[in-house]
Amino acid sequence: MSYEFSDGYHIRNQSATHYLTFSIEGWVDLFSRKIYKDLILESFAYCQKNKNLCIHAFVIMTNHVHTLWTAKTII
Prior knowledge:
Blueprint: E1 3-4, E2 10-11, E3 17-23, H1 34-50, E4 53-60, E5 64-71
Antiparallel strand pairs: 1-2, 3-5, 4-5
């Protein structure tokens, strides 16, 4: 496993592909509102353009987001 748990989560292999889930505190249905879904999509687009993030797949549920992505290495 590529994570350390003693001081929170740390991704050791920064260039590997990772599956991440983000959830809303209390499982509130926040992403059922278009404005919040759009904010996630804008953030993803920003990270693709400015942070060199390769997003392979994602799904936005009403109260959480699943992602599959890789941070591309800048050469």
